[in-house]
């Protein structure tokens, strides 16, 4: 349906049909170093944007990567200034003018440019923007400068001395600090919509350019409109002993979940793992010792063989980092099918931030399953909520958006808060929801891989799925603005 001069990760993510047709010949101008996306039906119309990873001049001409706003959407990346873009575009043809302003919340930094023919020029690279969400590359100061290393040093120091701090003192300190953490302007908590708003912008621009519906592959299989995924982190031997409490609640409600265990911290009998798996549950690895050092420089390589041994012993496909510590490049080499350590947004964790996604995505070959519901310890111990209201409210938001509601609960904390009662309330709320895909994490990861290996192709007046997801996938479309009396995104076939 489209042709593009460069691979386009946003289209790859949504499986929008396009073909890469690279320009032939040397680059004669900076515009030649920009990506060009055009519909096959109207190749004279296009969207262009800078590709900063190629060519020597574009990175030097751009503002350093920084946080910026496009309307109400908060983004992060490098920007080409208006004077530079205007110089190029006005020399290439008439009719170009600055359109939507790109600001820092006050001062204008750049613009989305348009011309009378309907062409669009973006001052940023959409793929870089998306990667900065997924990898938390935005975690710098708003002006683009790096944050101080003092915080990470303080977190590392805290984990070293934490065993010496009385538990009531730890909790009191966390509660006091939570009043500061919740004021974090980005990503907002408990819901940050900027990444998904940006997806809508990009797909909307493509539909506007094409003047017709743009097809893409729906996130979930078999006609399900959202996913509901349950996981548990078992941090201590006491948590392992209390495992049956949450397990039995799930069994009674017709759910199954994943249990992430810590083999170097407490004894995990093989028969416990075997019983869980025999009953349809999943077992994953929650680090080796739960000391916050698994991903540290020099430590990761030492621990990797032992983590791999335990994964093979348990046939574990998933990993979650203790305290949800994250290191994008390091985690890409984890020997698992998926990781689930990135929250969508969480200011309360030792490493605050989040990927802002309530859909899975890839870190190289690794599928990342974001944690999209607030953690039980935060909700019930730190914020002292009394029921499942916060969980249910966020789940409803995710259901309406067609995302994945993925929850962590800890059997370790059952004696400190009304977690079991709230968990029953949450599961009861969605037990009868046939629109939800109630899946194990490994099932979601394998589906996401099948989906990524599938594509859409023309079939008469419609589209068909080709590839390993063809039997379960659903095609949806984004409509151009003049057709949006209906929902911009809608299903067109199973």
Features:
9-stranded mixed β-sheet; 5-stranded parallel β-sheet; 2 domains; alpha/beta; 494 residues; 33% helix; single chain; TIM Barrel; globular
Could you give a short description of this structure?
Helices cover 33% and strands 21% of the residues. With 494 residues, it is an alpha/beta fold. The protein is globular and about 70 Å long.
Biggest sheet overview: 9 strands, mixed
Net shape = globular
Average pLDDT taken over every residue: 90
| Structural Rg | 24 Å
Widest beta sheet: strand line-up: 2-1-3-4-9-8-7-5-6
Written account of the structure:
This protein has 494 residues and is α/β, with parallel strands linked by helices. It has 2 domains: 2-138, no CATH class; 226-448, TIM Barrel (Alpha-Beta Barrel). The chain has 15 helices and 23 strands. The chain has helices at residues 9-14, 58-61, 82-92, 126-134, 150-161, 167-181, 194-210, 237-253, 270-278, 300-314, 328-331, 376-382, 389-401, 419-430, 441-452; strands at residues 2-4, 18-20, 34-39, 47-50, 63-70, 73-79, 97-103, 108-114, 120-121, 214-217, 226-233, 258-261, 282-285, 318-319, 338-339, 361-363, 366-368, 404-409, 436-438, 455-459, 462-466, 475-478, 489-493. The strands form 5 sheets. A 9-stranded mixed β-sheet has the order 2-1-3-4-9-8-7-5-6. The chain is globular and about 70 Å long. The model has no long low-confidence stretch (mean pLDDT 90). InterPro entries: Glyco_hydro/deAcase_b/a-brl. This is NodB homology domain-containing protein. Residues 475-494 are annotated as: Disordered. It comes from Planosporangium thailandense. Residues 483-494 have a biased composition (Basic residues).
């Amino acid at each position: 349906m489209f042709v593009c001069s460069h691979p386009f990760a946003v289209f790859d993510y949504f499986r929008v049909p396009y073909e890469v047709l690279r320009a032939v010949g040397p680059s004669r101008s900076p515009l030649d170093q920009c990506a060009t996306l055009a519909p096959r039906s109207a190749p004279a119309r296009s969207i262009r944007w800078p590709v900063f990873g190629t060519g020597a001049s574009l990175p030097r001409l751009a503002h350093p990567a920084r946080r910026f706003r496009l309307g109400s959407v908060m983004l992060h990346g490098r920007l080409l200034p208006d004077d530079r873009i205007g110089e190029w575009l006005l020399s290439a043809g008439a009719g170009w003018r600055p359109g939507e302003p790109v600001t820092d919340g006050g001062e204008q930094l750049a613009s989305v440019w348009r011309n009378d023919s309907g062409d669009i020029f973006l001052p940023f690279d959409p793929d870089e923007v998306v990667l900065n969400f997924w990898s938390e590359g935005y975690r710098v100061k708003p002006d683009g400068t790096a944050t101080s290393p003092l915080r990470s040093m303080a977190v590392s120091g805290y984990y070293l001395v934490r065993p010496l701090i009385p538990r009531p003192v730890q909790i009191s300190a966390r509660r006091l600090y939570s009043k500061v953490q919740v004021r974090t302007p980005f990503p907002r908590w408990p819901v940050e919509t900027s990444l998904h708003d940006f997806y809508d912008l990009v797909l909307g621009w493509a539909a506007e350019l094409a003047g017709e519906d743009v097809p893409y592959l729906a996130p979930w299989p078999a006609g399900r409109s959202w996913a509901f995924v349950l996981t548990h982190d078992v941090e201590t031997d006491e948590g392992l002993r209390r495992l049956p409490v949450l397990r039995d609640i799930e069994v009674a409600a017709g759910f199954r979940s994943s249990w992430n265990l810590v083999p170097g911290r407490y004894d995990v009998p093989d028969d416990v793992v075997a019983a869980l798996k025999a009953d349809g549950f999943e077992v994953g690895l929650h680090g080796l010792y739960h000391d916050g050092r698994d991903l540290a420089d020099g430590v990761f390589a030492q621990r990797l063989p032992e983590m791999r041994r335990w994964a093979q012993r348990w046939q574990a496909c998933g990993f979650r980092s203790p305290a949800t510590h994250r290191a994008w490049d390091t985690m890409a080499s984890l020997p698992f099918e998926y990781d689930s350590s990135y929250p969508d947004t969480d200011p309360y964790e030792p490493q605050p931030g989040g990927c802002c996604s309530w859909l899975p995505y890839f870190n190289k070959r690794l599928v990342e399953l974001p944690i999209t519901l607030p953690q039980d310890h935060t909700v019930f111990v730190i914020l002292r909520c009394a029921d499942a209201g916060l969980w249910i409210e966020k789940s409803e938001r995710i259901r309406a958006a067609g995302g994945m509601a993925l929850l962590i609960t800890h059997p370790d904390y059952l004696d400190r808060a009304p977690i079991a009662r709230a968990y029953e309330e949450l599961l009861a709320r969605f037990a009868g929801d046939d629109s939800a895909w109630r899946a194990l994490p490994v099932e979601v990861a394998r589906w996401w891989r099948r989906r990524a290996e599938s594509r859409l192709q023309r079939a008469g007046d419609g589209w068909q799925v080709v590839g390993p997801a063809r039997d379960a996938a659903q095609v949806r479309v984004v409509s151009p603005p003049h057709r949006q009396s209906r929902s911009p995104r809608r299903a067109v076939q199973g």
